[in-house]
Structure formats: structure tokens, C-alpha cells
Amino acid sequence: MDVRAAVAFEAKKPLEITTVQLEGPKAFEVLIEVKATGICHTDAYTLSGLDSEGLFPSILGHEGAGVVVDVGPGVTSVKKGDHVIPLYTPECRQCPSCLSRKTNLCTAIRSTQGQGVMPDGTSRFSLNGKPIHHYMGCSTFANYTVLPEIAVAKIREDAPFDKVCYIGCGVTTGVGAVLNTAKVEEGAKAIVFGLGGIGLNVIQGLRLAGADMIIGVDVNNDKKHWGERFGMTHFVNPKEVGNDLVPHLVNMTKKGADQIGGADYTFDCTGNTTVMRQALEACHRGWGVSVIIGVAEAGKEIATRPFQLVTGRVWKGTAFGGARGRTDVPKIVDWYMDKKIEIDPMITHTLKLEEINKGFDLMHHGESIRSVVVY
Ligand code: NAD
Ligand code: AHE
Ligand code: ZN
């Protein structure tokens, strides 16, 4: 079938809106009509050419919501008409990782996903007979896409696609990093580096967990009011603090008898490896936990003095907020529908597919929190 897609033909070039061909679902696959998709910084990262797994041509996009319109042989968990959110972290419930109960990083289809193909090793997308790669197993920058059945979460039908698509990455990543990965407790002191589409969701997760002090750090002063809107208690612009950022943050957290200072939890939501080090070192001696959410380009490495770890700080990472997609995503949709978490104000721009490159520009200029393309 013909579908409309924004195709990434080459790194660093704008996406091209064109008609491509999509084959129907094979065994254990589903065809989804994508109703809406968010634009995440990770899409921009891959388009920049710095992703070690970046493939071209491809159809990017991994933050969608839509409806099942066809199912391949053997599919049992969803049916035509079901509302779903595509999952770049699937949940097969059978692989050693899923069965371990220690991680959300299902390994059932990770290798083919990284090669830009479906689990049988082929792509469903093509243009003039030449294959186009899938992206993160999702390719939501097309109005129809094919996914393995283990990579869709069935959600309630009254949830608006143009809002809950954000649960397909940003919301779940930010809120999940707090609740699943860091397991933040009431009264905690936390620092969030980078107040974009992910960082603001970390902040609302911290508010949900009952954190007392939530310091937001961003180089863009416009993000101050955004952080405050979701529960941030203090704002720091590193450009205004100079080289003393870590001691400055540590001082802010000193309270009463505890004059050592440092946050109980810090979160990197920038993808900048210098910031990752600052986030670790701004943690409290003995117990502070720093969670890396940001994705850094191929070749970048993180560094710190081993002393920082010897003295009890812990470095952790999280993908998709530690969420098990088929199990947890429908619950997060419920949280949104029950007004336990907010999404609407973070969606600052709603665009047509033809305007998708504007969404990337808005992100790069720090003018959007989330842009959503509605088909
Ligand atoms: P974004 O562009 O919306 O936000 C990034 C924010 O960081 C901006 O507000 C920017 O001003 C700020 N920033 C940049 N450099 C900074 C610095 N040196 N110090 C402080 N603030 C700085 O991006 P996003 O969509 O929120 O994504 C954030 C990161 O998270 C990206 O690296 C993205 O690839 C990654 N990500 C990871 C996961 C995961 O599962 N681990 C999921 C989604 C996104
Ligand atoms: N191909 C990238 C991997 C980047 C990465 O870590 N991606 C996150 C999701 S970011 C969503 O916006 C993730 O899920 N990681 C776990 C995994 O298995 O990829 C690179 O840098 O090589
Ligand atoms: Zn993302």
C-alpha cells in the first residue's frame, strides 16, 4: 500500500515528505494507522549522523499512537480496531531479560531492530523497489507502519492520540526514571539537568514521588518557568555560575546538621558527557544516585575520579524509564486520563506531516517542549 512518510534519506538533511510503499504485516506483526507522533531529541540525534546505529534511508519517529488496522498470522494479543502505542522497547515476556524481572530491556528482537528491519530480517517499507529502513522498530513518521505484536501496548480508546503519543517515549522515560529506576522516596532532594521534553517529565515524576527539593539546571533561562510549572523548586543556569557549578549545587542542598551536601538523586537529561559528570559529582557522598537518561553520540565517554564512586555515589542508566511497555504503558495512559500526570501543556506545537522539519528546528532553537505531528 502507499503511505505518506517523512523519509530521512541522508544524515544532516531535512526529512523529505513523500509517498512510499508499505507491505502488509507478516506472521506475528501488526499494521498500525499512526494517528500522531511526537518528535524526540533522539530522532534529531540519529538524523545528525552521530548515532552509531543510524541507518539511511530510514523512516524515523518512535513516539506514536494509533489504531491496529490489520494483523498477520499468529497475532493473538491485539486485534483490528485496538488503540495502541508502538514500543521501541518491546516486552515479549519470554526472553531471559523479560523473565529475569531485573530489566525492561527485552532482547527478543533487539538485533534486527538495530539493523532497521523486522524480525525476519526484511523491511516492510520501500521506495521504487528499494528498501527503506525501519527506525527503533517503530517508524512513526509515516501514517501507517508495521510492528511486531510484542512491540505494541494496547491502550484505552478514550485517550487522545495527539497527547498520549508522548507516552511512547518522553513521558514514560522521565516519569519512569524517577519511579522505576531511581525509586525516589518522599522528602528527597533531586537535581535535574536539562529541562526539555524529558527533564520536565522527570520533574513531574519527582513531584509525584513527593521530593522536597527539585533543582532544575538548564543553559536556557526560558526553561525556568517551565520547570516551575511542573514542580521545580529552584533553578540554576550553569552559564551564570561558571566553573563552580558542582559546589554551587552541593551548597544549595546543605541543610541543618547535614553540612556535607549533595543531592539524593540527580538526572542527566541533556546527553552531554560533561553534564553527566557534573550530575554524578553533585550527588551526596555515601548514597547519592545519578541516573543517565541522555543519549551521547558515538565515541563519547564519561569520566570521573573513581573516588566519587568509592565514596558511595552510584551511576545508573535508564532506557524508556525502566518501563515494561505492554504492562506499564496502559497504566501511564490511565494516570494521564485520571489527571495524576500532565501532558497537554508540554505539547507546545501541533504540526502537519508537511511541517515536520519545523518541529526539529523548534527543538534545536529551544522554542518547543514537544512538537507533535498529527496525521
Ligand atoms: P530537548 O532538546 O527537549 O531538551 C534538552 C534540554 O537540555 C534543553 O532544555 C537544553 O537547553 C538543555 N541543555 C543542553 N545542554 C545543556 C547543558 N550543558 N546544561 C544544562 N542543560 C542543557 O531533548 P529531550 O527530548 O528532552 O531529550 C533529552 C535527552 O534524552 C536526549 O539526549 C535524548 O536523546 C535522550 N533520551 C533518552 C531516552 C532514554 O530512554 N534513555 C529517552 C528519550 C530521550
Ligand atoms: N542507537 C543508539 C542507542 C541510543 C539509546 O540508548 N536509545 C535508548 C532510547 S532513546 C529514546 O529516545 C534505548 O532504548 N536504549 C536501549 C537500547 O537497547 O538501545 C546509540 O547511541 O547507539
Ligand atoms: Zn525518544
Can you characterise this structure?
This protein has 375 residues and is an alpha/beta fold. The protein folds into 2 domains: 2-168 and 343-374, Medium-chain alcohol dehydrogenases, catalytic domain (Quinone Oxidoreductase, Chain A, domain 1, Alpha-Beta Complex), CATH 3.90.180.10; 171-319, NAD(P)-binding Rossmann-like Domain (Rossmann fold). 26% of the residues lie in helices and 23% in strands. It has helices at residues 41-47, 96-100, 110-114, 161-164, 170-182, 199-209, 223-230, 245-253, 273-281, 306-310, 325-337, 356-364; strands spanning 2-7, 16-22, 29-38, 64-71, 83-86, 125-127, 130-132, 144-148, 152-155, 189-193, 213-217, 234-236, 265-268, 289-292, 314-317, 347-351, 370-374. The strands form 3 sheets. Strands 3, 4, 5, 8, 9, 16 and 17 form a 7-stranded mixed sheet that branches. The chain has a 6-stranded parallel sheet with strand order 12-11-10-13-14-15, with helices on both faces. Strands 1-2-6-7 form a 4-stranded antiparallel sheet, with no helix packed on it. Strand 14 (289-292), helix 10 (306-310) and strand 15 form a beta-alpha-beta unit. The protein is globular and about 65 Å long. It starts with a strand and ends with a strand. The mean pLDDT is 98. The structure holds nicotinamide-adenine-dinucleotide (NAD), ligand AHE and zinc ion (ZN). Residues 40-42, 45, 169, 173, 193-199, 217-220, 223, 238, 269-272, 275, 293-295, 318-320, 363, 366 line the site of nicotinamide-adenine-dinucleotide. The site of ligand AHE has 13 residues, from loops.
